[in-house]
Structure formats: C-alpha cells, structure tokens
TrEMBL record:
Belongs to the phospholamban family. This is Phospholamban. One of its GO terms (cellular component) is sarcoplasmic reticulum membrane. It comes from Carassius auratus (Goldfish). NCBIfam families: P_lamban. The keyword Cell wall biogenesis/degradation does not apply. It comes from the Eukaryota. It is a single-pass membrane protein. It is found in: Endoplasmic reticulum membrane; Mitochondrion membrane; Sarcoplasmic reticulum membrane.
C-alpha cells in the first residue's frame, strides 16, 4: 500500500511539472467547448423528439 501511494505521489508530481504550451491548452479548451455544445444540441434534439 505504501509503495502504491509513493508511486501515485511521484506520478502526480511529475504530471504537475509538465509544462503545457498555450497553443495546446487553447486547443483543449476549444475541444471541450465544442464537445459541450454538441451535447447540448443532442439534448435539445432529444427533448424536441420527446415533445412531438
């Protein structure tokens, strides 16, 4: 158990040290926004179909 905790901590430390360049960060944000917009549209379509 102690070993697993140590590995997890070191992995988290390593991940937080990785520098994400701004372009990648912006692309990821755009992707998340697009994904949520698609989800909202699908939800609206589903509601409209239910109401008919």
């Amino acid at each position: 158990m102690e070993r697993v905790q140590h590995m997890t901590r070191s992995a988290i430390r390593r991940a937080s040290n990785v520098e994400v360049n701004p372009q990648t960060k912006r692309n990821l944000q755009d992707l998340i926004i697009n994904f949520s917009l698609i989800l909202v549209c699908l939800l609206l379509i589903y509601i409209i179909v239910l109401l008919m």
